[in-house]
Amino acid sequence: MLTTTGTSAVPAIRRFVHWVADPDVASVPQVRARVRVALEAWAVPLDTADVLLLAVSELVGNVVRHAGAGRMRVGVALGAGWLRLDVADRGAGLPRLPAPRAQVDPESESGRGLLIVQLMTSELGGELSVVAHEFGKTVRVRIPTA
């Protein structure tokens, strides 16, 4: 189940949408589709939109696989020269962000998603970060728009 909760009145943010969803497999394409609609409405360039859509698929998929119980929150904001994606969950564990120039075991069946998101984000001048808070964590992707 996805719940849309509106727009923000924060002056630095021109556009903001977010959704609350149960972390199940069906939520991954639902959230991705809603993010795509927002990015199209905001006329975000295709190369930037593609990176953010890859990121939302990976981050929401990670919540489904790793976070456990509780709902997740996905937010997308555009303003102040940045496009921002936040994926928050109540899971206690923090993801390990890849080190610069990280090597991935070629035999491993997982562990590449955050590295790919980080590389594609940094290619556009952006950043991937994790913020821990009392209710869990937020993984954030920021990409400059100017």
Automatic annotation (TrEMBL):
Entries under SMART domains matching the protein: HATPase_c
Protein name: Histidine kinase domain-containing protein
Cross-referenced Pfam families: HATPase_c_2
Domain Histidine kinase: 52-146
Cross-referenced InterPro entries: Anti-sigma-factor_SerPK, HATPase_C_sf, HATPase_dom, His_kinase_dom
Keywords attached to this entry: Kinase, Serine/threonine-protein kinase, Transferase
PANTHER family: ANTI-SIGMA-F FACTOR RSBW, ANTI-SIGMA-F FACTOR RSBW-RELATED
Signal sequence extent: none
